[in-house]
Design brief:
Beta-Lactamase; 4 domains; alpha+beta; 5-stranded antiparallel beta sheet
Length: about 525
C-alpha cells in the first residue's frame, strides 16, 4: 500500500512539474487564485512583465486589486461567479500597472481541481497593442468616411456573403440619391442588383476589371454605376460601388449629337441664306445702277423734249397764222391750186398734233421712269399705292397692248409709309410674272382695299397657274418654271424679302389652267416708324 501511495505521489509530482513548466513558459499572464478569499497564490513571469509588479508584490494582493478601483466591483462579481457556481467567463477589463498605466486585458477564468486542491485560474492576455491598432483603425475609418462624405459621387461598400449583399457604408451623396423614409437603410433596387435589370442600359468592363453600367430611372435621371471587388483579410468579398448622376452630361451629349446630326442641314440653310443675301445685294446694285441710268436718261431727254414740245407749239401757231394770212390776202388762189394749199395746211396741222401727242407720251414715260426709280426716297416715305401701280403700268404697257385687259378696283387707301422704290419693284415683278403667265389674250384684275390697320393689294391673272407641288418653292431663290432664258428665279424671292422687310405677308392662291392670285397684306405705319 505504501508503495502504491509512493507511486501515485511520484506521478502527481511529475504531473505538477509539467504543469509548472508549462505555467512558466505560457505566453499569456496566468494567475492562480485562492477561491476562499481571492488572494493571488501563484503567478507566472508574464504577470510581472505585464503589470510591472514583482512576484512577491503580486502574491500580497487580492485579484481585484490588479484592476483600477472603478473595476473592483465587477472583478469581485466575476470571481464570485466562478468560485460559487463554477461558471467560467471571458471579459475585457484593464490592469492598473505599477506605474499607474491602464493596460487593456482580455481575461478568461475557470475553476481547476488538483486532487483535493481547488483553485480559480485566470488567463490574461495583454491586448493593449491590439486596442491601439483598433482605435487607430477606427480613427482612420472616421477620417476616410469624412472624406467620402464630401465626395460629389455616391459611394457604398457592400459585403457579399453567400450571394447576399450587406451595406457596410454609404456616403452622404448616395443617401441623397436614393433616400428612404425608414430608419434602417435597406439596399435600394438600383444599388442591389444592377446586373439583373431588364431595362435597356449600357454596360462594359474597363481594362482594369471595373464593371460600368449606365441606366435611366423612371424620373428621367441617368446614373453611371461602377463596381470593383476586393478580398478582405478575413476572406470576405467586398464590392465598392460608385454612383454618379450624369443626367446633365447626357443631356449635353445628346444635344451635341443632335447638333452634329443637323450640322449639314444648318450649313445648307446658312448657305442658302447667304446666297439669298447675295442675290439681294446683286439685285439692289442692279436697281441702283438702273436708277442712276434712268435718272441720267431722263435728265438728258427732258431738255430736248422740252425744246421739241415748245417748238411744236410755235410751229402750230405759225402754220395757223400763215393759213389765216393766205386767206386774208387771197394768196391761195382759185381752183386746183387753192385746194392743194388747203390740203398742205391741213396735213401740217395734223402732223403737229401727232407730234404734240407723241411728245407728251414720251414726257409721261420719262416721268414714270423717274417716279419708279425713286432714288431720292431710299428711306421710309409716304407712298401713293395707286400712283405706284399706274407708273408701273406705264412701263409695261408695251407688254399688255392689244393682248391683256387690265381691270382695276381701287379702294379708298391712305398713304402707305414704306420704301417707295422697293414697292414699285414688287409691282413690276408681279405684273411681269402675271403677263408672262398669260398665253394669248387674257386679263389682270387689280384690287386694293383697307382692312382695319392693313392695306390689301391683290393681283389676279387668268394665266396657266402654278402646280400644287411648286407653290411651296416659288419664293426660293433660283426656282423658276419659265424655262431657260426666260426667268432667273429671283423675282418672287426679291418680292418676298421686300414684303417681309415691311412686316407684311403674302398669300398665294393658284389653280392650274385657271390662274393665280397674289395678295399682299401690308401694315399701316405712323410717321415715327423707321426701318
Amino acid at each position: 500500500m505504501a508503495n502504491i501511495d509512493a507511486d501515485e505521489l511520484k506521478k502527481l509530482r511529475e504531473s505538477e512539474e509539467k504543469y509548472r513548466k508549462k505555467f512558466e513558459q505560457a505566453r499569456d499572464a496566468i494567475l492562480d487564485i485562492d477561491p476562499q478569499n481571492g488572494a493571488i497564490v501563484s503567478v507566472n513571469a508574464q504577470v510581472s512583465q505585464v503589470t510591472g509588479f514583482s512576484r512577491n508584490e503580486l502574491l500580497q494582493k487580492k485579484v481585484w486589486q490588479l484592476h483600477p478601483p472603478e473595476e473592483w466591483d465587477e472583478a469581485k462579481q466575476l470571481f464570485e461567479q466562478v468560485r460559487s457556481q463554477g461558471m467560467g467567463y471571458n471579459r475585457q477589463l484593464h490592469f492598473l500597472s505599477k506605474k499607474g498605466e491602464l493596460i487593456d486585458i482580455d481575461i478568461s477564468a475557470c475553476l481547476i481541481r488538483f486532487g483535493k486542491k481547488t483553485i480559480v485560474q485566470r488567463t490574461c492576455r495583454d491586448i493593449t497593442q491590439r486596442r491601439r491598432l483598433e482605435r487607430q483603425a477606427a480613427a482612420h475609418r472616421k477620417n476616410f468616411e469624412a472624406i467620402f462624405n464630401m465626395m460629389p459621387l455616391g459611394l457604398a461598400v457592400i459585403r457579399v456573403t453567400g450571394g447576399k449583399h450587406e451595406i457596410t457604408f454609404e456616403n452622404t451623396m448616395l443617401k441623397k440619391m436614393f433616400p428612404t423614409d425608414s430608419d434602417i437603410r435597406k439596399i435600394p433596387d438600383w444599388l442591389s442588383c444592377p446586373f439583373e435589370s431588364k431595362e435597356k442600359h449600357q454596360c462594359y468592363i474597363s481594362q482594369h476589371g471595373t464593371y460600368f453600367e449606365e441606366r435611366t430611372s423612371s424620373d428621367g435621371k441617368t446614373y453611371l454605376f461602377s463596381s470593383s471587388y476586393i478580398l478582405d483579410t478575413d476572406n470576405s468579398w467586398y464590392e465598392i460601388r460608385i454612383v454618379q448622376d450624369i443626367t446633365k452630361r447626357r443631356q449635353l451629349e445628346n444635344k451635341l449629337i443632335e447638333a452634329k446630326n443637323t450640322l449639314e442641314q444648318r450649313v445648307e440653310q446658312r448657305t442658302q441664306e447667304l446666297k439669298q443675301k447675295q442675290t439681294q445685294l446683286i439685285q439692289a446694285e442692279k436697281m441702283a445702277s438702273l436708277g442712276n441710268l434712268v435718272a441720267g436718261v431722263a435728265h438728258e431727254m427732258n431738255t430736248p423734249l422740252g425744246v421739241l414740245a415748245a417748238n411744236n407749239d410755235l410751229i402750230t401757231r405759225i402754220v395757223d397764222k400763215m393759213h389765216a394770212l393766205f386767206h386774208e390776202t387771197g394768196a391761195l388762189g382759185d381752183g386746183q391750186e387753192h385746194n392743194k394749199l388747203c390740203s398742205l395746211f391741213d396735213q401740217a396741222e395734223k402732223l403737229n398734233s401727232v407730234n404734240k401727242t407723241a411728245a407728251r407720251r414720251i414726257i409721261a414715260i420719262v416721268n414714270s421712269l423717274r417716279k419708279f426709280a425713286r432714288l431720292d426716297e431710299a428711306e421710309l416715305d409716304e407712298f401713293d399705292v395707286h400712283e405706284g401701280i399706274e407708273n408701273t403700268f406705264m412701263l409695261v404697257y408695251h407688254y399688255t397692248k392689244d393682248r391683256i385687259e387690265i381691270e382695276k378696283h381701287y379702294g379708298d387707301l391712305p398713304m402707305l409709309r414704306c420704301h417707295p422704290n422697293q414697292m414699285n419693284q414688287v409691282f413690276m415683278n408681279i405684273l411681269v410674272n402675271g403677263i408672262q403667265a398669260i398665253e394669248g389674250w387674257g386679263k389682270i384684275i387689280i384690287t386694293t382695299e383697307r382692312q382695319e390697320n392693313n392695306v390689301i393689294i391683290s393681283f389676279e391673272d387668268n394665266g396657266k397657274g402654278i402646280e400644287k407641288e411648286h407653290l411651296k418653292h416659288i419664293f426660293d431663290p433660283g426656282f423658276t418654271t419659265k424655262g431657260v432664258g426666260v426667268g432667273t428665279g429671283l423675282g418672287l424671292s426679291i418680292v418676298y424679302n421686300i414684303i417681309e422687310d415691311h412686316k407684311g405677308k403674302i398669300e398665294v392662291e393658284s389653280t392650274p389652267g385657271k390662274g393665280t392670285t397674289f395678295r399682299f397684306i401690308l401694315p399701316l405705319r405712323n410717321g415715327k416708324d423707321r426701318a
